[in-house]
Amino acid sequence: MKDESPGTFHENAIEVERRALKKEKSKKLARHMLTIASPLFLLALWEVLSLTAVIDPRLFPPPTEIIRTSIQMLGEGELLTDVGVSLLRVFAGFLLGSVIGIIVGLLMGVYLPIRFFVSPLVMALMPIPTLALLPIIIFIFGIGEWAKIVTIAGSVFFPVAINTMAGVVNIDPIYVDVAKNYGARSKDFFFKIALPGSLPVMLEGIQMGQAIALLTIVAAEMMGAHSGIGYLIWTKYKAFLLSEMYVGLVLISFFGYFFSLLVRLLKVKLTPWR
Predict the structure, then answer these.
(1) What is the pTM of this model?
(2) Quick check: 63 and 242 in contact, CB under 8 A?
(3) Which H or E run includes 188?
(4) What is the pLDDT of residues 131-145, one digit of tens each?
(5) Do residues 227 and 80 make contact, with C-beta atoms less than 8 angstroms apart?
(6) CB within 8 A of 104, min separation 6: which ones?
């Protein structure tokens, strides 16, 4: 009969746990590799199909040519100016829309009279594309930077506000009961229960909002701007300079992925229990 002392049993348990941890790390690494592999595979396929003329290289120039074009545009300074202008507009509009959305969403989640008063307005206005309101926004704010920032803020506001409200409404009732039993004041409930309790769902809305902000800035700059990535895409398309146009599209894609990673990192930091 095999003798298994307590010390041996403890060592075996540690070994099993170590193997499980190693296996989990391998799985996580494999998932990361897959997320990197998919865009690389698409680019490689695009390159081959374009170089072999399976797809028309005039309409779909190979990625290597787009990279060469982007380096040339960087050297000329034109690209950096457009990127800087667009990022400033996106950041300002996203910040404005998110802050107002979080405040309105929290108020709707915590106070029933505000929810019943504001919900019909939110539901009625949400289906209207913000870009359709651009003429009205221009009437009010003019054709300057504020019109573009307000357009982006308007598109970010709805997903953030609705998700924040849903986050508050779905807080576990036990936390609400404990707060009431201990006589928590409205301010304490607002900042210590509602705000942290809604964070996981609120951050989902913020992630959705950052993607919508990028979509909106491109469309807004195509219609009413003389600088920015959207303006770059539109003018290069009209001049049939498609390599330059693809540089703008790739940049939007890159910033969308980059901002998405930043929000995910923020979620890990702010909601470590998820």
Answers:
(1) 0.78
(2) no
(3) helix 186-188
(4) 788 788 888 888 788
(5) no
(6) 118, 157, 161, 164
